[in-house]
Amino acid sequence: MKLITTSINSICAIALSLMLFSSSAYSAPKTLVFSAIPDQDQSQLIKRFGKVADYLAEKLGIPVRYVPVKSYAAAVTSFRNNQIQLAWFGGLSGVRARLLVPGSEAIAQGEEDTRFVSYFIAHHSSGLKPSDDFPVAMEDKTFTFGSKGSTSGRLMPEFYIREHMEKSPEQAFSRVGFSGNHSRTIALVQTGAYQLGATNYKVWESELAAGNIDLDKVSVIWKTPTYPDYQWSIRGDVDSEWGAGFKQRVKQALLEMNDPELLQAFPRSRFIEATNDDYQPILDTARKIGLID
Amino acid sequence: MNNPAIYHRSAHWKISWLFVGIAILCLPFADLTINTYDPMAELGRLFSGLLQPSIAAIEKPFEALLQTISFALLGVSAGSVCGFFLALIFRFRLVRVSCALIRAVHELFWALIFLQIFGLHPLTGLLALGLPYAATFAKVYAEILEVGERRAYDTIRHSAGISSAFFYARIPDLWQHFVTYTSYRMECGLRSSAVLGFVGLPTLGYYLSTAFLEGQYAEVWALLIMFYLLIAGLRYWLHPKLLPFYLLAAPFIIANDSTITFDNIVRFFTQDIVPAPLRNGEGSAALWHWFSELLMQQALPGIVNTLVLTQLALVVTGVIALLWFPLISGLFFGRFGRSTGHFFLVVMRSTPEYILAFILLTLWGPSMLPAVVALALHNGAIIAHLIGRYSEALPLRIDASRGINRYAYEVVPRVYSQFLAYLFYRWEIILRETAILGILGIATLGFYIDSAIQDIRLDRAMLLIAITALLNVAVDSLSRVIRSRFRLSMSPQQTR
C-alpha cells in the first residue's frame, strides 16, 4: 500500500503545485513586454535585446522585458494575444499583426527600412553573373528562400520571381526550400546545398563584415527594387493600460535611441517615424501573391 | 540453404517481401538525389565541435535543462493520471476513438495549436505533452488491465465494493506493469520535451535548433551531451521518493508571467479555425473552392510524400534493426562489445530525428534521402535494442552454430516474428514522425501544416492536421489487422 500512498502524494503534489502556479501567473506586475522576429543570428538575443529593454525601462519608468520567440508566426501570435505589446516586426509580419489587432500602429522604422532591398545570391557552380536585369537564367536550378514569413527572404523575392518568370517558384525552379533565416540561406548557398537564394541585404552586409562569406563561392547576382520593411508596432490598447500618451512616449523613446551599441541589435543607424500607410505596398504585394487573403 | 522453399512459403516471408515491394514501387516518386558541392568544410566544422563542446555561448543552458525536465515530469505525470482514469472507461467506443485521434496528432502540432491559444504561457507545453501522452497511457493501461489476473478481484468485489476491490485486488497485482511502462514513457517525455523547443518552448531543443541554424557546433554537441547524460542517468536522478519533490518544484521552474485570457480561447474556436469563406460569409461555392484547392494543392501531394517517405523509412528501419540487434546480444558479443553496442544504440535512439536529418541534410543536400535515413536510424536503433534484449532469452542448443551462421540460420528466424511485431507497431509512429521532418522542409503533410501556421491560416492548418490524424488512424488500424492476422504480438510493456 506504500506504493499507493506515494502515488496519491504525487497526485496531490501536482494539484497543489498547479494551483500555486496558476495564481503566481496572474499576480504579474504591469510589465511592458516586447519581442523581435528571429530573422538572423538567434544566439545572444537576450543579451542584445536585454539592453534595449533596460533602455526603454529607464525612458518610460516602467518595467520592460524582452521575450525571445522562435518564429515569425509566434511573434505575430504573441502580439495578437497581448502577451507582447510592442514588437520589432518585418514588413509582412507587421502587416499581418496589425490586421489581426485593430487599433495597433506602426510607430517607428529604421532609416534603412524606407528603402530596403533583397539580394539574389548564387553559388559559383551555377555560372550566373551579376546583372542589372532580372536573371531569368535561374530557371530550373535549386533555390532557397529564408523564413516562410519573411518580407526580404520570401515575399519580395517571390513577387519578382512571379513577375519576371511568370511562374510560381515551384514551377520556375527544380527545387524550392525555406532555410529558416537569412544567415542560414547564405550558408546553404555557400555550401552549394542550394544553387540560388534570396536574402536580406543588411544580413548579407553584416555576415560579409564578420568574414563569414567567401566571395569565390557565393556572390550577389541581382538586387530587387526598394521597398519598405522592418518597423516597430505597438498595440492600440497600451494607452488604457499605462496612461494617456504612453504610445507617444514609446515612440519618442525609440526615435531618441542613439547609442550605437543598442542600434547594433537591429542593426540600424537610427529610427525614424513610421505610419501604417507606409506599409500599404507590402499588404498589396502579399495579397497579390496570395500570402494574405 | 538446401531447402529454402520451406521458408519462402512462410507468411512472414511474404509479408516482408510485400513491404519491400511497396517500397521499391515508391522509389520513382521519392526524390533521393545527393546534391551538395562541398559538404566537407561544414562537416569538418561539425566534428571539430565534438572535440571541444562548449556551453559558453548559450544564454541559459542549465535553465533549459531544468525546463526540459520540468515539462517532461509534469506532462508525463498529468498524462499518466488522466490516462489511468481514461483506461477505466476505455471500453466506451467514444473514449477509444477520441484517444486514437488525439494520439494520431504529433506533440509538435499540439504545441503549434496551443501556441495559438495560450501563446508563451507554460500551459502550451504542458498540454502539448500531456494530452497525447494521456491518450497513449489510456490505451496501454487499458491493455494492462485487460490481460491482468481478475480472480482475486471477482472474489472480493461483492463484499468489499467495487472501488476497494479495484484498489486492493487489482492495482497491487498490476502495479509493477504500470510503473515499468510509465518510467519508460518518462524517457520518451524527456525527448518530446526537448523536441518541443524547436517550436519555441524554452527547453534544450530551443537552443539546439538555434545552435544548429547558426552553425555553432561546439554548442550543439554540448547540448546533445547534456541530453544524453540526462537520459542515461534517468534511473539515478529520477528516484520514486524524490518524485513529489520534483513535481512541487517543476511548476515554479516553468512558470512565467504571461497571462492567458478567455477571449483568446473563444476566438480560436469561433474565428481562427473556421474556414475563411465561412468566416467571411462567402457562401458554399466559395467554401467548396477553398476546400478543393487545399485538397488538391496541399493535402494530396502531402499525403503522397508522407506515405512514400514512411514506406521507404519502414523498410530501411527493418534492415537496420536486423543488422544492429546483435550489437547488444550476448549470443554474439562479449561484455565489452555489448557495452559499446549499448552506448551506440542509446546515442542513436536518443538523438532526435530532427537533428539526424539536419546533419544528413548538410551532408547530402535537400532531398528525401536525409529524412528516410534519419527516421530509419532512430527507429532502427529502438527496435534493435528491443530485439537484442529479446534474443538474450533464447535458449540455444549446446552444439549451436556460431558467427554468421548462428545469426542467419538460428537467431534471425527465431526472433523474426517478434521483429515484425515491433516493426509494424512502429509503422504508425514513423508516419507520425514524418511531421517533424516537414518542418525541416521535406514536403510531407507536416510541411504544409507548418506553412499554414506560419501564414497564420489556422483554418487550413486544422483541416490538414485532421487529415494527418485520419491517415495515422488508418495506418494504425491496418497495422493492427496485419499483426492479428499474422499473430504478431508483444506484451504491453514492450510497446511504446
Topology:
The complex is a heterodimer of chains A (293) and B (496).
Chain A: H1 2-26, E1 32-36, H2 45-60, E2 64-66, H3 72-80, E3 86-89, H4 91-100, E4 105-110, E5 118-123, E6 142-145, H5 151-165, H6 169-172, E7 175-178, H7 182-191, E8 196-200, H8 201-209, E9 218-223, E10 231-234, H9 238-242, H10 246-255, H11 260-263, E11 271-273, H12 280-288
Parallel strand pairs in A: 1-2, 1-3, 6-7, 6-8
Antiparallel strand pairs in A: 3-10, 4-10, 4-11, 5-8, 5-9
Helix pairs in contact in A: 3-4, 4-12, 5-12
Chain B: H1 4-8, H2 11-26, H3 39-51, H4 61-88, H5 93-103, H6 107-118, H7 123-147, H8 151-160, H9 162-196, H10 204-214, H11 217-232, H12 234-237, H13 243-254, H14 262-272, H15 276-279, H16 283-324, H17 335-350, H18 353-364, H19 369-392, H20 403-439, H21 445-454, H22 458-485
Helix pairs in contact in B: 2-16, 3-11, 3-18, 4-7, 4-9, 4-13, 5-7, 5-22, 6-7, 7-9, 8-9, 10-11, 16-19, 16-20, 16-21, 16-22, 17-19, 18-19, 19-20, 20-21, 20-22, 21-22
Q: What gross morphology of chain A would you assign?
A: globular
Biggest β-sheet of chain A, characterized? 6 strands, mixed
CATH class of the largest domain in chain A: Alpha Beta
Count of distinct strands of chain A: 11
| Name of the CATH architecture of the largest domain in chain B | Orthogonal Bundle
Strand content of chain A: 15-25%
In the CATH hierarchy, the third-tier topology of the largest domain in chain A is known as D-Maltodextrin-Binding Protein, domain 2
